[in-house]
Amino acid sequence: MLKGLRLDGVEYGRCRFEAPWATAFPGEADARFHFVGSGGCRLKVETGEWLVLAPGDAVLLPRGSVHVIASGEDVAPKPFRFLGRKEVCTGVYDVQCNCATGGSVMFTGAMRFNVDRQHPLLEMMPDLILASDLAATDPAIPHLLEAMGREVEMDRVGAAGILARLADVLTATLIRAWVERGCGEARGWLAAVRNPDVGRVLAAIHLDPARDWSVAELARVMGASRSGFAARFAEVVGETPARYVARVRMHQARQWLSDGTRVAIVAERLGYDAEASFSRAFKRVIGAPPSVFRRVAVSPAA
Question: What CA–CA distance (Å, rounded) separates 113 from 156?
Fold first, then answer.
C-alpha cells in the first residue's frame, strides 16, 4: 500500500521576508511544505497554537490545513497568493514581502498525492509533521536539510530547481520516517493493517482496487471460511468486507475522474456494464455523482 504512494510538486516559492511579516495559507487540497533557510519564524495552525521554527527546520502539512507563518504572533497576515512573485523557472517562483534584502529566507511548496485525500493513510496522518521530530531516527533527513540550507541561501544558477527536487525528496523521506516510526498510535485502520490475518486482505484490496472482490475470494486470501472471514474482518475493520471494497473502488474512481478520465472509461475499468449503474454506486458511496468530479477536472483554470 505504501509503495504506491507518490506525490508530485505543483508549485514552489523561494520567499524573502523582512520583519515584520506574516502570510496566511487557506485550507487546500494539496499538501504544503515549508523549509526555513534563515531568520526563523513562527507557524500557527487552526488550533491557535504557535510553533517556533528555527533556521534549518522543515514542516509538512499533509492535508494542506489552514495555517499562518509570521515573524511574530502580533502581525496581521496577508494571504500568500497576494504576495509579489516572479517566475524563476516552470512552477518555481521568487516571492517577496516588504521587498526584503535580508531578513528571513524560506522555501515553500504545494504537493499533490497520487491517491484520494480520503485514503486511510492520509486521513490518519497528523496535521503537521516536523522534520526535527524524525531526524534522529532517519540519518538522511539532516543531510537533506543541510543541502536545502545551502541552496536556499545561495543565488546560483539552477538553485531554485534544485531546491524543488530536494523538497520532493525530503517530503517523501519525512513520510517514510513517520511510517517506519510507527505512524503514531496503532489504532483504527492502521491496527487493522497490522493484524496478521486482516492485513493480508487489506493489502490485496488496495493492490488491485479495480477488481470486484467477492467475499469468497477475500476469505481465500485470509485462509478462512466465508463466515469466519466476514466476522473477523468486521470485528477488526469495523465494517463489512463488501462495504470496504466498495469504498476503496469508488475512491479509486474519484481519483481517475479527478485526473480527467471520462466516466464511461472509469465504469468500464471497474467492470460495470452500464455507466448508469456505476454512477448510482458512485453516488451512494461518495455522496455526489461522478460528473461533478469529472467537470472539475476538465474545467479551465480560473
Answer: 30
Per residue in 63-122, pLDDT (tens digit) is: 889 999 999 999 999 999 888 888 888 888 888 765 444 578 889 999 888 776 667 677
pTM summary value:
0.71
Tell me: do 19 and 157 sit in the same domain.
yes
What is the domain range of residue 32?
7-180
The widest CA-to-CA distance across the chain, in whole angstroms, is: 70
Could you give the angle at the alpha carbon of 136 between the alpha carbons of 179 and 60, nearest 5°? 50
Q: Answer for the pair 159, 151: CB distance below 8 angstroms, yes or no.
A: yes
How many Cβ atoms from other residues are within 10 Å of residue 257's Cβ? Answer: 24
Look at residue 24 and give its three-state secondary structure: strand
Domain tally, the chain: 2
* 214: DSSP letter: -
Residue 171 zone, left/alpha/beta (φ > 0; ψ -120 to 50; rest): alpha
As a whole number of angstroms, the distance between CA 29 and CA 31 comes to 7
In terms of Cα–Cα distance, which of 208, 209, 211 is closest to 252? 209
Specify whether 176 is located in the same domain as 264.
Answer: no
Q: Name beta bridge partners: 95.
A: 15, 85
In sequence order, the 6+-apart residues with CB closer than 8 A to the CB of 91 are 9, 10, 11, 12, 164
**Phi and psi dihedrals of 70, rounded to 5?**
-155, 160
Number of other CB atoms surrounding residue 81 within 10 Å: 10
Q: For residues 11 and 128, state if they share a domain.
A: yes
